[in-house]
Amino acid sequence: MQKKRLILGGTFDPIHYGHLRALEEVREALGMAEATLVPAGHPPHRQSPWAPAEHRLAMTRIAAQQAPGLGVLAYEVEKSSRSYTVDTLRHLRADDSDGFLAMVIGMDAFLRFDTWKDWQEILDLAHLVVIGRPGWPMAELPEALRQVLYERRVEDLAALHGHSRGKIAFHTVTALEISATQIRSLLAAGRSARFLLPDAVLDYIARQRLYHET
Ligand SMILES: Nc1ncnc2c1ncn2[C@@H]1O[C@H](COP(=O)(O)OP(=O)(O)OP(=O)(O)O)[C@@H](O)[C@H]1O
Ligand SMILES: O=C(O)c1ccc[n+]([C@@H]2O[C@H](COP(=O)([O-])O)[C@@H](O)[C@H]2O)c1
């Protein structure tokens, strides 16, 4: 069955309003009813997330309950191997080879996109929606990515709808300078992280004592 799918992958350690608001704004700008968060199980590029995958999945599910149409794909957490984005996209394409598939990626992640496993295949499996993030200028883009932009960039999100995959669009979202690193530091120092992430996620963190001093 052909679907329209919009995904945002992340370590989500923990998920916060920077993630949620960015995905919400892209979803709305694309005129889509649904969007999916994809927590990474074993991120290939990090030594180790702070919270175990099952807790990051649980926090992501709690956050997703806040909005109708927001879903969570547990695929990367449920498989034992490393979470390469290309594998997840192949998995989604196995279900729906022709449907519209777009992946949101922050500018900080896009600047290193040419180091991702089979990154050129990723571009043939899905659209990329690159969102601006405070402090990460485009000027730092490596040459390989400049070339890819030259070949694949479209003017705006609306132009993606003419294709099911393979294009890159930039979209500016409300700049929320929130990071999971900042939240972990605040909590470890015994300080408040309220209003940076959903209260229900904070309650879960407190119950599970995930980032607090021991
Ligand atoms: N405040 C934000 N605004 C827009 N995009 C964001 C924001 N925070 C994270 N993202 C994007 O969301 C995706 C997942 O991010 P991730 O889970 O690594 O969060 P993070 O806050 O960057 O975490 P950490 O501080 O641990 O590196 C990435 O593509 C990242 O660029
Ligand atoms: O597949 C890869 O090689 C790859 C390399 C770096 C990052 N990613 C994915 O990019 C997303 C954002 O990563 P991060 O570190 O910002 O949470 C997350 O879904 C990662 O699995 C994927």
Automatic annotation (TrEMBL):
Catalyzed reactions per annotation: nicotinate beta-D-ribonucleotide + ATP + H(+) = deamido-NAD(+) + diphosphate
S-adenosyl-L-methionine in keyword set: no
Class in the EC hierarchy, top level: transferase
UniProt keyword annotation of Electron transport present: no
Gene3D superfamilies: HUPs
Keywords: ATP-binding, NAD, Nucleotide-binding, Nucleotidyltransferase, Pyridine nucleotide biosynthesis, Transferase
Positions of the Cytidyltransferase-like domain: 7-184
Listed EC numbers: 2.7.7.18
Pathway: Cofactor biosynthesis; NAD(+) biosynthesis; deamido-NAD(+) from nicotinate D-ribonucleotide: step 1/1
Source taxon at top rank: Bacteria
InterPro entries in UniProt: Cyt_trans-like, NadD/NMNAT, Rossmann-like_a/b/a_fold
Described purpose of this protein according to its UniProt entry: Catalyzes the reversible adenylation of nicotinate mononucleotide (NaMN) to nicotinic acid adenine dinucleotide (NaAD).
Family statement: Belongs to the NadD family.
Name of protein: Probable nicotinate-nucleotide adenylyltransferase
